[in-house]
Specification:
The complex is a heterodimer of chains A (269) and B (282). Chain A has 269 residues and is mainly alpha-helical. Chain A has one domain. Chain A contains nine helices and no strands. In chain A, α4 runs antiparallel to α6 and α6 crosses α8. The radius of gyration of chain A is 22 Å and the shape is elongated. The termini of chain A are far apart. With 282 residues, chain B is of the alpha/beta class. Chain B folds into two domains: 199 residues, Rossmann fold (3-Layer(aba) Sandwich), CATH 3.40.50; 70 residues, no CATH class. Chain B has ten helices and twelve strands. In chain B, the strands form three sheets. Chain B has a six-stranded mixed beta sheet, with helices on both faces. Chain B has a four-stranded antiparallel beta sheet with strand order 2-1-4-5, with helices on one face. Chain B has a two-stranded antiparallel ribbon with strand order 9-10. In chain B, β9 and β10 form a beta hairpin. In chain B, α4 runs parallel beside α6. Classes of the chains: A mainly alpha (269), B alpha/beta (282).
Chain lengths: 269, 282
Amino acid sequence: MAAGDLLSKIELISPSDFAKEKVRAIQEYSLLASQSLSNLFKRPLYMADILQQADLIGFGSLPIVLLTGFFTGAVLALNTAASLGRFGALSLIGQLVSISMVRELGPVLTGLMVAGRNSSGMASELGSMVVTEQIDAMRALGTDPTKKLVTPRVTATVFMLFFLTIISDLLGLIGGSMVATLLLGLDSHEYWSSTYQTLVFQDVFMGLIKPVIFGFIISTVGCYYGMSARGGTQGVGKATTEAVVASSVLIIGVDFFLTRLLIVLLGFR
Amino acid sequence: MTTPLQPAAISPASGQEPSGRAIVFENVSLTFEAKPVLDGVSFCLPRGETKALFGVAGSGKSTILKLALGLMKPDSGHIYVLGEDVTQMREDDLFELRRQIGMVFQESALFDSLTVRDNVAYRLEEEHALPEKEIDARVHEALTFVELGHTMEMYPSELSGGMRRRVAIARAIITQPEVLLYDSPTGGLDPVTSTTIVELIVKQRDVYKTSSLLVTHRLQDAFTMANHYFDRTSNRMQPLAQGSKADVPMTFLILRDGKVIFDGDAQALAQSEDEYIREYIS
């Protein structure tokens, strides 16, 4: 295809239309996100759908979360051993691994893993339903799709990501312990007591508030891109990719601002 | 009769839609990306009547069904369905109204993760009004109506296109809605399957007296409906006796460039002298 033909196929859009499109997208996302929460106080609640999604999202994501948590903790111990060893502070490995995992790496990496697996799954499933008119059929049959499809996914993701993060944190500490004891020759009891003693309420609070926010981002972004998919299978593919990219970037961006906010609010050290 | 109905002719006198009309479109206009799809469309569907909508692709036929169901909102005009102005209703209230309306989508739109039984039972399950045993009985009855009683545990992907349309009809009629909307129910099907579906629509019209809007490209299907009635004794569609066409509650509506250019019965359509209509029906 000649360059001219290719250029003629590229749709040009004016800056004002582009801006309007983005503002409308934010407006629609905000509406969907708020509806997903307000639906929790309306009947019916679709408990069976919430449990089904909790199983798919929570139990289904367990293998990747276990592996990610374990190897992150292990590699963290491995990488910092050389630096700490230079200052004769190898015994601080437990503290470093626990603070890093609980405050930051556990929530963020678990969030990113779950986003990659579930945000894309939600976008493709709901997108396929949109392009095959199943969402319209649902509305025609008297069911609110946000109540039936979006709210159960949001509830299940928020709830399950919270527990997945705790499991990931624990596996990270176990990974660090394996490296510390088996490769670096540290005492296991020393590692675990320093790990436990170094954590304070603020660390745990920060580590547990993040998965709640990240779970909400993952599910609402996945559902939003799915529900706004257009243009057949190609549109579903595009929605899936965009959902993963947007939720991953949002997790990393929001993580920074949330960390800063919590440091200020809770008077972190 | 080739002139579109005037809004005044069907306008509800007191702001309330009379009970004798299932659907009323009153001067409805809709534009998509600066392109007018519907331009001042007005018509009414009396209760118990089936109205076939015709027009070239993109003339707004399916849009009319979606507007009647409240899935889309017009730019201007009013749409009354069972006495309610759907253009003024909130989405939550529309869900209640939609429970009295059945819709058969162009591509069936069955839920592909549910079995045929669960698809057909969907509305009853959502309403939580009946015990499971009775839901099963109602599903079996609806599937028997469309001659698919043996497909209960199958998934939509295991059915042929014609079978999926029939399941979609069973899903739409299970609650015996007052209004049925069919979007190209025979599109892309072989003549034998099409005739089966036409027969089901005639059965629904003559046995249950359901008001229906039917979008189709197949003029012969609509003429078959206008020339046949459902005989309960033989449980088959039978041709009408010569000269008794007026007994069948079946009318035709033709759209062109977003406007209604014909609204009347088969006899009036056959006698129309409008050049476009003559070419369309030839």
